[in-house]
UniProtKB/TrEMBL annotation:
Organism: Melghiribacillus thermohalophilus
Binding annotation for Mn(2+): H112, D135, H137, D139, D216, D218
Cofactors required: Mn(2+)
Catalyzed reactions: agmatine + H2O = urea + putrescine
A Gene Ontology molecular function term of the record: agmatinase activity
Protein name: Agmatinase
Pfam families the record matches: Arginase
Keyword Hydrolase: yes
Role summary: Catalyzes the formation of putrescine from agmatine.
Amino acid sequence: MRFDEGYSGKVFIMSRPSYEEADAIIYGMPMDWTVSFRPGSRFGPNRIREASIGLEEYSPYMDRHLEEIHYYDAGDIPLPFGNPERSLDMIRDYVRKILAMDKFPLGLGGEHLVTWPIVQAVYEKYPDMALIHIDAHADLRLEYEGEELSHSTPVRKICELIGPENVYSFGIRSGMREEFEYARTSGMYMAKYDVAEPLRKVMPSLQGRNVYVTIDIDVLDPAFAPGTGTAEAGGISSRELLEAIRLIAKSDVRVIGADLVEVAPAYDPTEKTPIAASKFVREMILGWVK
């Protein structure tokens, strides 16, 4: 079930040839229509795929090999350039199809607004879900410069949909005063600056729950991931993010889907950002797809 039957581009390393037999579906969301600083994350999904060719198929973190997981890379959803509303509808519809077949949706962004329609689809199937949000930015605005559809608003929209008490944010180090006040008073959980240690403390309270995980690559310090649209100094290391992925994998939560967003390759001639992102995706596959 590719988006383009004539597609001949890159796929994530060891992608299986059959959609029907796959347990997980990788799909790209090449959208950066609402970004407020630097565009270019629409090129992220394919650069992550290309960088994955340099990966080992075995993970010493998970002690698993990619041959143990059946996943299919469906390519990029053909989103209409410059049309966020229609693009979000298409993402939501596609994720609904993945979930209807009881497959694990693993999305590659694209800007962070793409997480909003994914969670809408996931919430329809799992109304008891929680969200783990790993990011430099709070993304709790109601609007940005008058636009409600913005990459700065998805987590606020998700709070209003699933309840703020079901939202857990980690690594946050940027946002308006009002966003941090909302986090403090709404009942959501927000860990500022760090990820692994607060995540370790929170995981017992999520035991047995259905959890969707969204990772914005800009949670990393720009020293580790300069290729992103809104880089923020003071971030975590690649090692800490790998530890966070492992902590979730080794816990008793049930991960029901995930995405990794905001890789913008044009700002990183060294390619360290897509290289790191591809490794994180490998770990997400090996750790979270059961």
